[in-house]
Amino acid sequence: MVVRGWRWVVVALGLAVLVALPALVEALPADDEDVSPADLRAQVLASDDVAFSGYAISSGGLTLPVSDALTGVADLLSDQTALRAWYRGSDDWRVDVVTPTGETGTHRDASGTWTWDYADQRASRGDDPPLALPTAPDLLPSALGRRLLSEAGDDELSRIAPARVAGVDAVGLRYTPADPAASVSAVDVWVDPSTGLPVRVVVRSAGTATPALDTRFLDLDLSAPAATTTAFDPPPGADVTAERDLTDVDLGRQERADLPATLADLGRRSFDGVPDQIGAYGSGITVLAVSALPGRAAGSLRDQLERTPGAVVDDLGVRIAAGPLSLMVAGTSTRDGGSGTYLLAGTVTLDALATAARQIQEAAR
Question: Its domain of life (predicted)?
Answer without folding.
Answer: Bacteria
